[in-house]
Amino acid sequence: MSLRVITVTLVSMVGILISGCELTEKPQAEAESKSEPIIAIKPTNNKSSDPGPKPRPKVEPQYPSAEQVISWHAMQCGRFKVAEKDKKVLAEKELKQFFKLFCLKASSAPKEVMTQLLKLDQAYFWPDDIKQYLWLQKQQLKQHILAEQKQQALNEKMKQTMSSLATIEQQLLLREDTEEQ
Fold it and tell me: How far is it, in rounded angstroms, from Cα 4 to Cα 97?
């Protein structure tokens, strides 16, 4: 390409850009008389044919306070009475259901409770104080799971010992029978 073609192309593009800007802006005198800011193109129809992300809600979701979460836990486990607040918060129902399950099955079925806790933890973007509380619950459940595994290992060892004792007892009884004959 020659230098002349490039120059002509650049000049024509600059001309188009300048004239495009003039078409989209209001004249300065008109804008000053109405004391409105100069606005480029304003969409007249709210329905856009352009698919895009949904607008972020103007109000952030209301998570419960750590105090409220702890009181729900206490209420589910110890029938601790708390004054219910009229304000509905995010995940209230899920938290109460989880704490009920936690209180009933943390010792007997800790793996099931841990599964529910992990689902609940990943379902929402929790504030830090609630995240920390849920982390503490995970640690407690891990201790229950570890204790359950140790108990199972101990039970297996006990079965082996009982089986060995039964075998020894049978051998002793056989010796006594052969000695008597």
Answer: 76
Contact 133, 66 (CB under 8 A): yes
* 31-58 tens-digit pLDDT: 455 555 555 455 555 555 555 555 655 6
Q: Cα(68)–Cα(80) distance, rounded to whole angstroms? A: 12
Report, in angstroms and rounded to the nearest whole number, the Rg of the chain calculated over CA atoms: 37
Is the sign of the CA dihedral 48, 54, 56, 58 positive or negative? positive
What is the maximum alpha-carbon separation in the chain? 129
Map tokens 């809600």 to a residue.
57
CB neighbourhood size of 117 (10 A) = 21
pTM of the model: 0.57
